[in-house]
Design a protein that fits this description.
Helix content: 25-40%
Oligomer: single chain
Length: 417
């Protein structure tokens, strides 16, 4: 659809590359009675700009609030398109640089150029949009109000995880706006967490991965503890707990606003529903409180632990290169980027894989007790091998001891072949 619409003009921005669309299972709020999107946005901006009431005075009356699900070009759509365009361009360039030109058709190279052209014409060139009003990353193209701040989906942060373009490991050092973008991402995470976000097994697992990508070790550990302690059975099968509508928002028309059902509500079920649940419990698929087994939390939780232990990327070798995997790129391994060393004082892991075909055969660390700085008490050992030649930069929180084939760098990360 994006390519098809782009043929209409080669000069204007593709401000709405996907329409109609949704940000999965989430809603947004506008003010006013208009059903026209442009008019609704204008009325909403006016309502948002109303000053707060002074002490002892009644707040000005806002227009009627309306809830919507269908939108145009939500953040997740733009992030996926940007990821696709970067990946296609990088794949073509990698095949060319690997000497397999016969397998790259002229039309592929033409499409790769077209992909980069379209990338520049996406909203904000495919990068997340930071709200000037809240300082958070916008989930929708316009700066709407959120009826459900703690919504279980983290769709507005897709570019950080499972996407890659907006996480520290993948952004070029010194990239304009990188620091402010990461600050906005953290502010968004904290806002959603304060609103009750991550209240299912899979949602908590997604939260672990996001915090890990942001190098927030303590926050990642907190989310992981929540996943295991609150949203997993004793046998460690992850669960999806019963949810109930948020009464205030539902009364106003929000049909996607849910919260955890209290224990008492979980017991008030019809006999037919109770019979089904008894049968499921006999199979080990549900707890006595109605939490249902859902494997998403297990798979996502393991992915989150892996992200805490190892992150990898290909960084452009020159400032003119713009795509992961392009000519002159340097493979990068970040060891233990989000490990809470004060809690995981020692550990060992084998068989982690990084981008570029690298395998971390052994990754071992130990934090000894003492009053010195952490990096003076932390020892890290890594054995890295790979099945191809290339330039590898290894980074770790502190000085490291390197061994094994494939080359690697010390604590600061020196390039190696």
């Amino acid at each position: 659809m994006c390519v098809e619409r782009s043929n209409q003009s080669t000069n204007q921005s593709i401000d709405q590359p996907t329409r109609p669309s949704t940000s999965p299972e989430n809603s947004y709020a506008t003010f006013g009675d208009s059903t026209n999107q442009v008019e609704a946005e204008a009325q909403t901006a006016t309502a948002q700009a109303q000053p707060q009431a002074a002490a002892g005075k009644k707040a000005p009356r806002r227009p009627q609030q309306r809830f919507h699900h269908v939108t145009m070009a939500p953040a997740i759509d733009v992030a996926i398109l940007a990821h696709l365009f970067h990946a296609f361009d990088g794949t073509v360039k990698s095949l060319d640089s690997a000497g397999v030109g016969d397998g790259v058709l002229p039309t592929d190279r033409e499409l790769a150029g077209r992909a980069l052209e379209l990338l520049q014409r996406l909203p904000n060139q495919g990068e997340p949009v930071v709200s000037a009003r809240t300082g958070r990353i916008q989930e929708f193209l316009a700066d709407y109000d959120e009826p459900d701040p703690g919504h279980r989906h983290w769709s507005g942060l897709w570019s950080i995880y499972p996407g890659t373009r907006s996480s520290p490991t993948f952004m070029e050092p010194g990239t304009s706006g990188a620091k402010s973008l990461l600050q906005a991402a953290r502010k968004t995470m904290e806002h959603k967490r304060a609103g009750g976000g991550g209240h299912t097994g899979w949602s908590a697992a997604w939260e672990v991965n996001l915090w890990a990508r942001l190098r927030a070790a303590e926050d990642a550990h907190t989310a992981l503890s929540k996943l295991i302690g609150r949203y997993s059975m004793p046998n460690l099968l992850s669960t999806h707990p019963p949810l109930q509508p948020r009464s205030a928002q539902q009364a106003g028309g929000c049909r996607t606003c849910f919260e955890l059902a209290p224990a008492a509500a979980r017991r008030g079920e019809s006999s037919a529903a109770a019979t089904v649940k008894v049968r499921q419990r006999e199979k080990g698929l549900m707890t006595s409180m109605g939490d249902v087994f859902q494997i998403d939390g297990n798979l996502g939780g393991m992915a989150g632990i892996s992200e805490m232990l190892l992150q990898s990327s290909s960084m452009p070798g020159t400032s003119s290169a713009s795509s992961v995997g392009s000519v002159g790129s340097i493979d990068m391994l970040d060891l233990l980027p989000s490990v809470p060393f004060d809690r995981w004082t020692s550990g060992e892991v084998r068989g982690l894989r990084g981008r570029g075909g690298y395998e971390v055969d052994l990754l071992r660390w130990k934090l000894v007790e003492g009053s010195a700085e952490m990096c003076e008490r932390l020892s890290i050992e890594a054995h890295i091998s790979n099945g191809r030649s290339g330039r590898l930069q290894v980074r770790s929180p502190c000085a490291m001891q390197h061994g094994g084939g494939g080359g690697g760098g010390g604590g600061g990360g020196g390039a190696a072949g």
